[in-house]
């Protein structure tokens, strides 16, 4: 009896001494009772860990199903504590160890990461329909009124209707042609604003954001956004929304805790939604009031209905499959605004950063612009002739894909990928960043070399899975035609109208910071100078 007591006490002391070295915060106690409690808790954690490993091993090895390999984690939290902020790079490192498909348990959720061309093809082609759900995080549900937008909707009739409407009414070639005037007006306004700030540092992302926002709001409700005070601060709100979509939220990994919103992320997202609501309610109410004052003919005075008008007319339709309520309209407007602005402005910034970092590239772009445009102002009709600039944009997309893990997908039934079982409801990422930096797919992938895109066989359709900055399969970005046009137009105009110099006192770097939209760590600031001799071209 005495022996057992001594053994127990020795054992306890051993654990105590070992643990105090590693986990001093846990063992920082100053009385016997606390010490005993800590010992019991530690033993409990160890026993739970053993059970956890046995359980996961049972599934993976001896098992009924063969899950993709991957690192072990802690009980309850899984691998969560070991993930770094740079998720795209961390996932790439893990794939070097475990292979092109690996799994991670994060809390109670099973995650799978696919990092090779062959397996990305399986997900986006062979099983495209199976993997077409999203499994949105809590914060995404809050900002999209419960997943009523396109990006976070599951693959169902509602999602198909919304997507079809966006593509046919906003992003069709016919509508993009009809809206050319908006793009010309807004890009010229931007050039004139930059002209007024010549010789002083300009935030490049901000210029791209405001130009894109004004074009998109003109297309959606016929008015550029910045004119009204109620749109003030929209960029900051959007940045907060994107940051909240990126920040790890324990409620997503351990759903029973979501009631408590322990990190306050959901409360913070609700605040952003209220701000957004005020903007969208104002615009919608304003339109409803204008409509009620006009005859039906007058609402279509230029022969073309804008998107808000089309949605409001659909709202009153009897057919349930095509009618929308106000909340659904707001969710769709939110989607289009955020999906188009942050991505485009981030890319304008990355392309400008790469050009300012590669003087040889800058010289070639200027030569091409001079040859195609002359010393005049850039028009949309010039864009298709700017082959070298197009290659520079594509190479920047390869090196800095703004959504490096695309948007997560989730299978609606259990299926096999690469010989492994992917359980129904898993969260699946395609690591586009890894694919676009893989030496198996690209020679010297770390080198910035636009020439690789000069052969004309590359586009943004996701057909060639080596290059998928807009995704691939049925969930591919529907905004490619507008995104591509706006990027080329803004960049060609900024580069042709101005000579850009980096401020001397600021250190230039090209590092990125992972996020739902992955941006430059340090915002790019550059100083514009007049490049075209005729000053009237800047008015
Ligand atoms: C440079 C510009 C843009 C980039 C890089 C970009 C990139 C992406 C990517 C990577 C996805 C996810 C695809 C996937 O999960 O496989 C996506 C989805 C989406 N994008 Fe874009 N996008 C851009 C511009 C736009 C524009 C201009 C619009 C609309 C006007 C738009 C609307 C959407 C929507 C609605 C989705 C969700 C599609 C769905 O889930 O069915 N995007 N985008």
Automatic annotation (TrEMBL):
Pfam family, one: p450
Annotated positions binding heme: 477
Protein name as annotated: Cytochrome P450
Single GO MF annotation: oxidoreductase activity, acting on paired donors, with incorporation or reduction of molecular oxygen
Gene3D superfamilies named among the record's database cross-references: Cytochrome P450
Phylogenetic placement of the source organism: Eukaryota, Viridiplantae, Streptophyta, Embryophyta, Tracheophyta
Superkingdom of the source species: Eukaryota
Recorded family membership: Belongs to the cytochrome P450 family.
SUPFAM superfamilies membership: Cytochrome P450
């Amino acid at each position: 009896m005495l022996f057992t007591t001594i053994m127990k006490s020795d054992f306890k002391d051993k654990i105590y001494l070992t643990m105090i070295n590693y986990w001093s915060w846990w063992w920082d106690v100053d009385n016997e009772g606390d010490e005993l409690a800590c010992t019991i808790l530690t033993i409990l954690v160890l026993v739970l860990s053993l059970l956890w490993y046995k359980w996961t091993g049972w599934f993976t090895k001896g098992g009924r199903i063969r899950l993709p390999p991957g690192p072990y984690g802690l009980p309850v939290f899984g691998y969560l504590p070991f993930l770094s902020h740079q998720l795209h790079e961390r996932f790439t490192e893990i794939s070097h160890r475990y292979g092109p498909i690996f799994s991670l348990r994060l809390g109670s959720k099973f995650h799978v990461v696919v990092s090779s061309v062959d397996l990305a093809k399986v997900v986006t082609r062979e099983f495209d329909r199976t993997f077409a759900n999203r499994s949105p995080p809590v914060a995404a549900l809050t900002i999209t009124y419960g997943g009523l937008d396109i990006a976070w909707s599951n693959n169902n009739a509602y999602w198909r209707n919304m997507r079809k409407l966006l593509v046919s009414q906003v992003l069709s070639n016919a509508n993009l042609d009809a809206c050319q005037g908006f793009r010309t007006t807004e890009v010229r306004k931007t050039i004139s604003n930059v002209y007024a700030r010549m010789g002083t540092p300009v935030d490049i992302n901000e210029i791209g954001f405001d130009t894109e926002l004004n074009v998109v709001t003109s297309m959606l409700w016929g008015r550029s956004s910045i004119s009204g005070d109620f749109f003030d601060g929209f960029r900051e709100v959007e940045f907060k929304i994107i940051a909240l979509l990126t920040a790890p939220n324990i409620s997503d990994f351990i759903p029973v805790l979501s009631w408590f919103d322990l990190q306050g992320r959901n409360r913070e997202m609700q605040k952003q939604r209220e701000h957004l609501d005020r903007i969208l309610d104002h615009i919608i109410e304003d339109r409803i009031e204008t409509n009620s004052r006009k005859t039906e003919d007058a609402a279509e005075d230029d022969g073309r209905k804008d998107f808000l008008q089309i949605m409001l007319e659909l709202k009153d339709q009897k057919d349930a499959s095509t009618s929308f309520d106000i909340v659904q309209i707001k969710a769709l407007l939110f989607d289009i605004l955020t999906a188009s602005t942050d991505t485009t402005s981030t890319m304008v910034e990355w392309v400008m950063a790469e050009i300012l970092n590669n003087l040889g590239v800058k010289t070639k772009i200027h030569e091409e612009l001079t040859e195609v445009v002359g010393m005049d102002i850039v028009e949309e009709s010039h864009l298709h002739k700017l082959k070298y600039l197009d290659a520079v944009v594509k190479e920047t997309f390869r090196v800095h894909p703004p959504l490096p893990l695309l948007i997560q997908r989730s299978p609606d039934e259990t299926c096999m990928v690469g010989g492994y079982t992917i359980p129904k409801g898993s969260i699946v990422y395609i690591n586009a960043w890894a694919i676009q930096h893989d030496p198996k797919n690209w020679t010297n992938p770390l080198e910035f070399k636009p020439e690789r895109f000069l052969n004309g066989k590359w586009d943004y359709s996701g057909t060639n899975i080596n290059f998928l900055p807009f995704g691939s399969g049925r969930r591919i970005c529907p905004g490619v035609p507008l995104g591509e046009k706006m990027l080329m137009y803004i960049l060609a105009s900024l580069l042709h109208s101005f000579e850009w110099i980096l401020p001397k006192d600021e250190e230039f770097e090209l590092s990125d910071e992972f996020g739902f939209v992955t941006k430059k760590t340090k915002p790019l600031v550059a100083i514009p100078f007049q490049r075209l001799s005729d000053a009237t071209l800047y008015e």
